[in-house]
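Q: For a teaching session next week I want to show students how multiple molecules come together into a single three-dimensional assembly. I've collected the sequence lines for a complex. Could you give me the predicted structure tokens for the whole thing so I can convert them for display?
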Amino acid sequence: MTNVNSALSPLLQLERVARRRAGRAAVQDLNLELAPGQVLGLLGVNGAGKSTTLAMIAGALRPDSGAIRLSGEDFLERPERARRLIGWLPERAPAWPELTVAEHLDAHGRLRGLRAPEMRAARATIVERLDLQPLARRLAGTLSQGQRQRLGLACALLHSPALLVLDEPANALDPVQVGSLRKLIREQAAAGTAVILSTHVLVEVTAVCDRVAILHEGQLRHDGPVRADDHAALERRFFEIAMQGATPAARAA
Amino acid sequence: MTLLAMFRLEVRRLRVQPLAWVLLALSLAWLGWCFTRLLGDFLANEIKLAALPDGPGYVDLVAVPLLGQMAQLAFLVVPLLAMSTLAGERRHGTLPLLLAAGAPASRIVLGKYAALLLWLLLWLLLVLAMPLSLAHATTPDWGKLAAATLGIVLMLAALAALTLAASAFTAHPAIAAVLGLLIGLGLWTVNLGAQMAGLDGGAINWLAMSTHEQNLLRGLVSTTDIAWFVLLIAVCLALATRRVAADRERG
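A: Of course. Below is the structure for the complete assembly, covering every listed component.
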């Protein structure tokens, strides 16, 4: 396994994090660091442990063992630290179907500790940035999956987090929206936000990420830099790892 | 701050739920009809009752029976209103969003519970407005009315806590509603068998919600009855908190 240590002091540190789910080890002995402004792509086949890892980083799930540090502080001991520092877009962008888009943003702002004046300013900015104005009065239950994905992204970005955790954010987005999403991620990174992006799409990683980590069967199998012209090498490495332990029929396919 | 944010979120969710308004409208319509019937009976017998030295008054014959009717309706209304508080969050996948916002499980549960109580108190105020609208024309026994109101408040709070706890253990609101209804009815009638067998056992009577509620509806306020309700509410909220906290632990 290759490992990359950033020259910058890490914003996020995972030390020997492990978690069992549904009777099996979903994540094992995971060590990872992320510096401000870095974009890390998290790759892996279904069930590799990506969503479990992201849920633990976001504070929605507690590891069985190990430590997660945020700006040097153990945030498992102080989960409220995650409140202002982390923005999370979970897989499938869950939402309260009976609330409007604007009500969602208000609710997320309050939950993340924004005060009324800050929230008004943040909401106006994010609504404009993600072009949500036409949807502001629509109920979340009536939105398409792509629109919900944009709403989820807006909620994750509303409080200007230091760490943005995105679980398959390009799901159900059209090509134009995917382009906007990539631009948004690069803008956030340029502003100093660390981003973790989980995806199944290798092109996504080469397009926006500085680093890539590949998880397989809950273990970190690769952690290295990625370049935009490196797509073929990344694909080769990914399939090498993904095929470990696969049946001959799966290899042939 | 998170408690207030949770409270406001839940109030907003309840406010836009058609079921909450339908329940409010239907129950008020039924209780309004009960009120006019009780009032008619009271007016028909008013002269005879006035002749009795310690005869029952307006509160005994109109206000308290109306609250009794409300207590019966509460077994259905409260579980239906509270069923999706936590089960709905789990069903829509939004519970992890709340946990990730750093909100402790206790604040999630208390915020939701406070919002439910606000809605139930609004319901109670609208029901109480019926007998109170004629209070200027009678001489109500305010003490008895206050005791009965306290009884209803405690019962609504207990049923809400019970359904909230049931809602914490499932992702299906309908299951939470059925559990809330069955456990509520079970607690109300737990001493029924003993009574039918002619036994007047202290312990089994103490367990029954009906024993404590009927004392309060009769105007008897005792710390034992209040403690029973407070204990039930505390146990249910503690159970709900434990289950929500376990979501962060167990996933």
